[in-house]
Amino acid sequence: MKNFLYTLTQQYQNICSALKHADGIAALALRCYLVPIFWMAGTNKLMHFQDTVQWFGNSDWGLGLPFPHIMAALATSAELAGAVLLTLGLLTRWISIPLIVTMLVAIVTVHLPNGWQAIADPNAPFANQQVLASAEKLEAARGILENYGHYDWLTSSGSFVILNNGIEFAVTYMIMLLALIVLGGGRYFSLDYWIKQKISKWLS
Question: What mean pLDDT comes out for the span 79-84?
Answer without folding.
Answer: 98
